[in-house]
Amino acid sequence: MAKDYFGTTLSRxxxxxxxxxxxxxLKLNNRRLGLLVFQLSWMMAFIALIIVNWQLxxxxxxxxxPNVKAMGVTLPTIATLxxxxxxVLARVALRSIKGNQLMRFITxxxxxxxxxxxxxxxxxxxxxxxxxxxxxxxxxxLMTAFHTLHAVAIGAYMFNILRNAQHAxxxxxxxxxxxxxxxxxxxxxxxxxxxxxxxxxxVFIAWLLFYVVLYWWRS
Amino acid sequence: xxxxxxxxxQGSTVAGKQFRVSDFLxxxxxxKIIGIQYIATSLFFFFVGGFLALIIRAELWTxxxxxxxxxxxxxxxxxxxxxxxxxxxxxxxxxxFGNYLIPxxxxxxxxxxxxxxAFAFWLIPPAGILMMMGWFVGAPEAGWTAYxxxxxxxxxxxxxxxxxxxxILGISSILGAINFIVTIRNMRPEGMxxxxxxxxxxxxxxxxxxxxxxxxxxxxxxxxxxxxRVANTSFFNPANGGDILLWQNIFWFxxxxxxxxxxxxxxxxxSEVLSIHSRKPIFGYRMVALSSMAIALVGFTVWAHHMxxxxxxxxxxxxxxxxxxxxxxxxIKIFSWLGTIWMGKIRYTxxxxxxxxxxxxxxxxxISGVMLASIPVDIHVHDTYFVVAHFHFVLFGGAVFAVFSGxxxxxPKMFGRTLxxxxxxxxxxxxxxxxxxxxMPMHWAGARGMPRRVAEYAFEFQTVNQxxxxxxxxxxxxxxxxxxxxxxxxxxxxxxxxxxxRALTLEWATTSPPPSHNFDGMPIxxxxxxxxxxxxxxxxxxxxESHYAPQLPKSSNATTMAESNA
Lengths: 219, 566
Description:
The complex is a heterodimer.
Chain A: E1 2-3, E2 9-10, H1 12-56, H2 74-98, H3 102-129, H4 135-172, H5 191-216
Antiparallel strand pairs in A: 1-2
Chain B: H1 31-59, H2 71-105, H3 114-122, H4 124-132, H5 134-137, H6 150-154, H7 157-186, H8 199-230, H9 244-277, H10 285-298, H11 316-325, H12 327-341, H13 350-373, H14 375-381, H15 385-415, E1 417-418, H16 421-447, H17 462-492, E2 494-495, H18 535-547, H19 558-565
Antiparallel strand pairs in B: 1-2
Helix pairs in contact in B: 1-2, 1-3, 1-17, 2-4, 2-7, 2-9, 2-15, 3-7, 4-7, 7-8, 8-9, 8-10, 9-10, 9-12, 9-13, 9-15, 10-12, 12-13, 13-15, 13-16, 15-16, 16-17, 18-19
């Protein structure tokens, strides 16, 4: 038996439980800070490409260069809105999982992925339709490809979460037996979902910067 | 007698097991083993880079190209020397020290992300191998700065491997830095606020911030270079609308701060060693800590001084001013260190000698840095040996001296045995004299107009080049004494005990080497990590020593030594 800070007597088990809880909290704090630090860092790679875009403009009298067709803004604006909706909905889905609503989470997560898919498809169209032959086209393709690769990688991670959640749902409904490999997301285990949501936020913010630079910033 | 809280939790700590070589050859998530893996790998590449340096100096013994088959071969040796020293030795070795020391100094069990830590280390050997494989497919010959068009149009396939290797090393650095920041921010023990943290932690924190903010720029630049080489783009080719200065801008935005990645942790080592071995509190703790952050911040505003001869003249003045401003936080550190050892009870251990060596050499390197920041001087000595002298004074005279200081200081903690002091003194003095003989005359050669990166030079420079080469061979030989010392110590070294230097920071409040879980219970940090010379400090050190008494050599009398040294 021991006493805690306020003089309450605690059993050894209670002390161990408190210790475990503290360690779990520390683990979550570490993960959150680690991801934030990574995001701040990796954003610099996107900023580096914006600087590349800016410096390449000096080689031409105007931007887009003469005789080069500027990219239209309609499709990318739709893509931007789809990505924004996807990121917001991922936050909502995170709240569902924190509230132990797995069915609702799966529906929302499917929509998140669908909206992300819309974004990626538009990006592929944009990548293919830019007029090549000058640095305008090259740097456009570089930036959109760099960003879309990130979106696809994070999309793959999110798709994996969806598979896990669907598998867990099937186990819970008795359609599948638990082979020990099922991953259950719930109010006590939501870090993977939270991380995906935060990564999607990152993808959106990085895209917003690129969107302005690629489509609206002309000189 | 002041009251003192016992520095350790209840229960006795069993001494860490003695390591076997095989422990270091496999995947593990123990930060101490990872730290030593980093250090050993980096030292290996230090010897590779050093060997290449000796080939360079042997070639330059005469003004003609006679040892190497051609000037191109000379370029490849020079490129690999710089790349190995900077990317495979200097940057990873500080990650090694950080890995070993940060959790111990914070009283933690491990780093925040142990698995990620191991992963970051295991990226380095493949990257090193990839870079070295360049020798078999046509080594890169564009220098460590890889300026296009040299690195695009002239270098062979080894340059592509070099780019991929650097990409991998960059990822490793970023993962390591994330780990350091989270560990330092979240895992400090109770009672250790930001300003009770050891200064090595502050230095690592500042370094990690630079790594995180700058390395993605290197990744961006390398991606463009890779595409220009393999995907037929022309980002750096003005004939197709590219910009030749684009590489320099992006590359130096990373690489100038990278100089501080290589030097700041060394400054952290110095703060520890100078205070402990002169038995005095650090002079101006807060200023030393915050000046690291100031260096990290200002370091991002100076990159264009590497392009003084190529950028628009109007941009030169602002960059000259920022480059000179960075001497201010550096100067704060220098004066703080001088204040620390002033009237101290200095013990001339090898660790202390190397730190004093750093202090003297870094001041010279810093002053030549301010000279180079001045536009007229820079234009005069641009691309000459003066620049070579400057950065070797900073990176060898500064960082490498700090590496050796750190190795002599923490070797007892890492391996439980103290490195031989007599061999250490020989090592130091040969390094010191060899270093000065090598790099001091380079100032003269550069000021007289000897260009850098050449295998052939004017006959009038032969004498000075022979002096430099002689110094280089002396410097190379000095390293053998370190290797001999390390090997000798493994078998015959004096058992160190937990706290051979009577230090107050937490890494000394456990056995040497520490057990896998580092501490039993939560260690309680002393209120001032450099508060030597007080009764409380004496009592704290005594408590550590009595707790680990069986570990102490029989000849030492803990109480009297603690009293005389605290």
